[in-house]
Amino acid sequence: DGGITQSPKYLFRKEGQNVTLSCEQNLNHDAMYWYRQDPGQGLRLIYYSQIVNDFQKGDIAEGYSVSREKKESFPLTVTSAQKNPTAFYLCASTSGQGGNSGELFFGEGSRLTVL
Amino acid sequence: QKEVEQNSGPLSVPEGAIASLNCTYSDRGSQSFFWYRQYSGKSPELIMSIYSNGDKEDGRFTAQLNKASQYVSLLIRDSQPSDSATYLCAVRWDMRFGAGTRLTVKP
Fold it and tell me: Is B11:A10 a contact under the CB 8 Å cutoff?
């Protein structure tokens, strides 16, 4: 079955540690996205990538980093520079680029808690 | 910065009523519009997509798009308690979301 797999589902981090959230898709989608969601809030765009080896900052990129070395994979690293990283992180992908392109498919999310 | 705004919630309607959710956007070049439903602790799921001006109906859901006025809305007819969720509006180019409207349908 095609889909998006995020791991881990739950992650605990000590202050000052970097953590990497995995996102893998087998939908052959070009574009991939990372969102952050805080309780009772909407989705805020962290980074997105429309093609391999290229990515753009979203609205809240500070303290995060990404890579897109393979079409299928778009890992997100939450660095120690992110002062309030406790949140629900969602990865998504879509076919096409911009314009009249299709819906986003989401992974099940990763919940990060800073101890 | 391109913006997407949704009517502030929370919204509460009685079972069987019509729920109306609204969304405005700033980028006139946007061509693709989506409504997602998100249950607490879960990832969003697509309800409707709309690309052309006018209405699009799918069961109890109707999406309405007016590009001249830059708004898109979602109507839920015969609302059910299972419709209680947060509804998110998303606008292409770079797939930004509104803040979401929390809907509660009371039995």
Answer: no
- Answer whether B32 sits within 8 Å of A48, measured CB to CB: no
The neighbour count for residue A51, using CB atoms within 10 Å, is 12
Q: What is the pLDDT of residues B58-73, one digit of tens each?
A: 999 999 999 999 999 9
DSSP state of B18: P
- Please tell me if residue B47 touches chain A, with a CB cutoff of 8 Å: no
Distance, CA of A109 to CA of A7 (rounded, Å): 8
Cα angle B11-B16-B17, degrees, rounded to a multiple of 5 = 45
pLDDT, tens digit, 9 for 90 and up, residues A47-59: 999 999 999 999 9
What confidence tier does B1 reach under pLDDT thresholds 50, 70, 90? low
